[in-house]
UniProtKB/TrEMBL annotation:
Pathway: Cofactor biosynthesis; FMN biosynthesis; FMN from riboflavin (ATP route): step 1/1; Cofactor biosynthesis; FAD biosynthesis; FAD from FMN: step 1/1. Keywords: ATP-binding, FAD, Flavoprotein, FMN, Kinase, Multifunctional enzyme, Nucleotide-binding, Nucleotidyltransferase, Transferase. Belongs to the ribF family. Catalyzes the phosphorylation of riboflavin to FMN followed by the adenylation of FMN to FAD. It comes from Chromobacterium piscinae. SUPFAM superfamilies: Nucleotidylyl transferase (SSF52374), Riboflavin kinase-like (SSF82114). Its EC number is 2.7.1.26, 2.7.7.2. The lineage of its organism: Bacteria, Pseudomonadati, Pseudomonadota, Betaproteobacteria, Neisseriales. This is Riboflavin biosynthesis protein.
Amino acid sequence: MQVFLGDPRRFALPGCALTIGNFDGVHQGHRRMLERLRSEARARALPTALLTFEPHPREFFARANPPARLSTLRDKFALLEELGLIDYVFVYRFNHSFSNMSAQGFVDQVLVRELKTRYLLIGDDFQFGSGRKGDFELLASCPHFATEAMPSVLVKGERASSTLVRERLAAGDLDSANALLGGVYRISGKVMHGQKLGRTIGFPTANIHLPHLKPALKGVFVVEVDAPQGRLGGVASLGLNPTVSDTPDYKLEVHLFDFSGDLYGQRLTVRFLKKLRDEERYDDLATLVAQIERDAASAKTYLTSLQREQA
């Protein structure tokens, strides 16, 4: 899979079978769409391509209160790479100029001239262009490519969507969210230097940088962490850490079981297995430590039972 930033015409790429969207989280609906795209591309002897945007258009239009993002751009690429269904990813910068492009201008400039689209697969609710005036009828009228709309994908009777995944994660319903995603929800990031409070209270933590201020879930969780040293079990806090911090920045702090070493600068992938509780503010550090001890014990018990089930 190749990723292209900027005007793709400078890369002299061939025509493609294209789909368009943010693909936040790469959930089951996205996966089914990409499978369909691959099938149609093979029938036409075309490479598959995805057009996506950075930032998310909803983030651009709602900067004061953007929606939670399920996956960073890097995590999105990793999920798409694992599927093995996309040959090219085109990342377009979503800015004022792009947002003001007319629907017809988008078709003529982006789809036809820049991406050389020969087949286009879109979601059944896809709209585009300034004022969201572009729709299936406009795309279908273009003689340069064939256009098809993908019907909604249902998972346990519910339409798979990034919005629904966000709702389930916010509610702490990881089982439902993971069913919609088709895998365990995860976040990756580099380990950064923090307050180093954890090591003074017997629970050293890896502080993972969050590129976006608003995560899709909050609380204390049982986790597994993919690190250069292998997959490790642990307990994680994702939130504002109100007992020891008064900043508005969200923090992902992971205490790894049976591990000692330096992780600074390394990229970890945190897999969220079970929510233990919501985040709370405690009156003093001793009360917080006692709660962390209970959380760690609960997480170890859950991981042990999980290992037995998988044995």
